[in-house]
Design brief:
60s Ribosomal Protein L30, Chain: A; alpha+beta; MECDP_synthase; 7 strands; binds 2C-methyl-D-erythritol 2,4-cyclodiphosphate; lyase; two-stranded antiparallel sheet; metal-binding; five-stranded mixed beta sheet; globular; binds ligand L45E5XJ5; 2-C-methyl-D-erythritol 2,4-cyclodiphosphate synthase activity
Length: 161
């Protein structure tokens, strides 16, 4: 029987005026960007935490501590590549990912296929194995007030041959 594992991930970062908005490895034109130690790519962070969670390997802060200057301004796709190596070394590969980004603005739909291509390339997958959805928070709470953007991800891992 095929061995499978499932993991979920969540991340949120604050929106500020002097940062770029990076989501799924793509720079998205917007007057606000996400604040963080790395590039603050909440979508990629949620996916990494889901991958690690599927194997009970802890979370991204354990591997890339926010206190370590090595990760200051890090491209989260580089971190994703490291998490991919980690699961591959243990004999696992990603079966599929489903995720949702919650952002009041900007409209993410035009950028979603580009994000899927970027993440698929790092994980050596087909884009149709990466689900990315966007929704607003209907103006409710901190995300609805555009104080931040959050993302949720679920990842299915399949044992390699
Ligand atoms: N930042 C966003 C938010 C939403 N979308 C797209 O709009 C649709 C409707 O969103 P609601 O939150 O009003 O339900 C949603 O299904 C997405 O297709 C988007 O592109 N970017
Ligand atoms: C990505 C890391 C890298 O130091 O930092 P941040 O960009 O601040 O992101 P967060 O999700 O708050 O913490 C995880 C860290 O591993």
């Amino acid at each position: 029987m095929t061995k499978i594992r499932i993991g979920n991930g969540y991340d949120i970062h604050q929106l500020v005026s002097d940062r770029a908005l990076i989501l799924g490895g793509i720079k998205i034109p917007h007057e606000l960007g996400l604040l963080g130690h790395s590039d603050a790519d909440v979508l990629t962070h949620a996916i990494m935490d889901a991958m690690l969670g599927a194997l009970s390997l802890g979370d991204i802060g354990h591997y890339f501590p926010p206190s370590d200057p090595q990760w200051a301004g890090a491209n989260s796709l580089v971190l994703l590549n490291q998490v991919h190596q980690l699961i591959r070394d243990r004999g696992w590969q990603v079966g599929n990912i489903d995720s949702v980004v919650v952002a009041e603005r900007p409209k993410l739909k035009p950028h979603i296929n580009n994000m899927r291509d970027k993440i698929a390339a790092v994980l050596e997958l087909e884009p149709n194995q990466i689900g990315i959805k966007a929704t607003t928070n209907e103006k409710l709470g901190p995300v609805g007030r555009e104080e931040g953007i959050c993302a949720y991800a679920v990842v299915l891992l399949v044992a390699s041959e």
